[in-house]
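Weekly modeling sync, notes
Attendees: S.R. (lead), two postdocs, one rotation student

Agenda item 3: backlog of single-chain predictions. S.R. asked that every request posted to the team notebook include the full sequence so nobody has to chase files. The rotation student volunteered to paste the first one in as an example of the format we agreed on. Action items at the bottom.

Example entry:
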Amino acid sequence: MSIELAYRQLANNLQSLYDQREANAIANLVMEKITGLNRVDRLMVHQRSLMEQEAHQLEQYSQSLMAGQPVQYVLEEAWFAHLAFYVNPSVLIPRPETEELVEWIRVENGNIMGLRVLDIGTGSGCIPIALKKQMPGASIISIDKSKEALEVAAKNALTLTAVIELKAIDFLDQDQWEQLGEIDLIVSNPPYIMESEKKSMESHVLDHEPPMALFVSDEDPLLFYRNIAQFGQTHLSTNGTVYLEINQALGKEVCDLFESMGYYTELKQDLQGKDRMVKAQLLDN
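Predicted structure, as returned to the notebook:
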């Protein structure tokens, strides 16, 4: 089977699960992973037959994809901030909107040396590693309650040569806060999808990504944000700042919460025009 035919066959098969554009994009990622050639380079050799090992890989990947597994888990790779991260089902797949959060932080803080950063709920480590690569003068601590997630983050930090400190801490256990010192900047993409929103989610997300990293109860959807605001009151340095990714439906609620606890807030939309990020700074700490 030629490279061109393999791509077309996979893309056509995937259209039973995805729309045409997404199916083509997934097929392109798979063919690039298998052949080591990007789309332009593959056009130059599109009639070349797949080698035996490439054909075997394609068959394995195709079976997993047709079973509904996200392509990032199948390939064990997700791109974020121009970096290739190892991912598995223990961690959330990095999203483009989270890149926007990282970029906001970089633009506003990139020239500050010695910045002490705390990343809450690190998952794959995409946020702290991207920040460290772009802000090498920062000192970054990343925490997560999942030991499996911390193993993934450690692997990525090593592979991508980013020196960050990883700690196994359940942030909702306030007794563990004493393990963390004074912080200049807090960043977090905490669980924020309400249980009632499950019915509107794609099955490849719902069935495969870790629920612990996604969902909060409808009864207390601001659980993590309230704890972050409380932590900041006692651990943020003077003029310390919090940057958060949020549920697009809860922008006002998140801002109101932080403002009620003595913070100035700024709500920012993502490139899709959705309320997606909040910056909060203590008015007097």
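Discussion: group reviewed the output briefly. The longest strand covers residues 236-245.
Action items: rotation student to repeat for the remaining queue; S.R. to check formatting next week.
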